[in-house]
Amino acid sequence: MPILTRRSVSRYTLGAVSATPCPKESRRAKKERAQRILAALEQHYPGAASELAHRNPFELLVATVLSAQATDASVNKATPALFARYPDAHALAQATPEEVAPFIRSIGLYRSKARNLVALAQKLVEKHGGEVPQDKQALMRLPGVGWKTATVVLGAAFGVPGIAVDTHLMRLSRRLCFSQAKDPEQIGAELESYFPREKWVFTHHALILHGRYVCTARKPACERCPIYAYCPSKGAW
């Protein structure tokens, strides 16, 4: 899943809707529209979950770190061999970045990611007994882990409510007129204010799938969009 930074925000990321003004809408009306969108997403993407292959919180954490500026598909091709060699934090903590790098060579920024993974594993062993902590601040103190990665791991591995924002959610939040912000954390907070807390994790995953396969950056498939009726930007393409 691509990590979003302010520098990565572009017309390609946001889509042509960045030039389309949002209609005036009360907060109550936005929340009601969000409920209708959520109902449609639940029908269209039942069981929406991370597409990163993993069997436990440790594997999810490693895969999410690797997914920065990379596709889930590329990560999923690399991790089976990586996890076979380093099945847990204790094993990975004993490796060197040079030993890890060949396993993830096909992924962008693999050298720096190899360094982060080894350092991350060492800190997991040193500070948390080799287990992935269920605390966001503790996660964010790990090398290579920022707000988005921590939010993703807490939600997918432990069910902790949160909406992490990647390029897809940035684009959809603007097209759906829920947020015009550029900061991922601010966008996440605004999205969370419209959707019910118990549905935040599902909303995160469902919107990613929708942005990945339907509401794409360049040519959104509006003709098969399940939330077309509730999109203020419909017809912009």
UniProtKB/TrEMBL annotation:
Entry superkingdom: Bacteria
Chain positions recorded as [4Fe-4S] cluster binding sites: C215, C222, C225, C231
Domain HhH-GPD: 66-213
Cofactor(s) in the UniProt record: [4Fe-4S] cluster
Cofactor binding mode and count: Binds 1 [4Fe-4S] cluster.
Keywords, in A-Z order: 4Fe-4S, DNA damage, DNA repair, DNA-binding, Endonuclease, Glycosidase, Hydrolase, Iron, Iron-sulfur, Lyase, Metal-binding, Nuclease
EC number: 4.2.99.18
Biological process according to GO: base-excision repair, AP site formation
SUPFAM superfamilies for the chain: DNA-glycosylase
InterPro entries noted in UniProt: DNA_glycosylase, Endonuclease-III-like_CS2, Endonuclease3_FeS-loop_motif, Endouclease-III_FeS-bd_BS, HhH-GPD_domain, HhH_base_excis_C, Nth
Pfam family, any one: EndIII_4Fe-2S
GO molecular function, one term: DNA binding
CDD domains tied to this protein: ENDO3c
Catalytic activity: 2'-deoxyribonucleotide-(2'-deoxyribose 5'-phosphate)-2'-deoxyribonucleotide-DNA = a 3'-end 2'-deoxyribonucleotide-(2,3-dehydro-2,3-deoxyribose 5'-phosphate)-DNA + a 5'-end 5'-phospho-2'-deoxyribonucleoside-DNA + H(+)
Annotated family: Belongs to the Nth/MutY family.
Function: DNA repair enzyme that has both DNA N-glycosylase activity and AP-lyase activity. The DNA N-glycosylase activity releases various damaged pyrimidines from DNA by cleaving the N-glycosidic bond, leaving an AP (apurinic/apyrimidinic) site. The AP-lyase activity cleaves the phosphodiester bond 3' to the AP site by a beta-elimination, leaving a 3'-terminal unsaturated sugar and a product with a terminal 5'-phosphate.
UniProt-recorded name of the protein: Endonuclease III
Organism whose genome encodes this protein: Allomeiothermus silvanus (strain ATCC 700542 / DSM 9946 / NBRC 106475 / NCIMB 13440 / VI-R2) (Thermus silvanus)
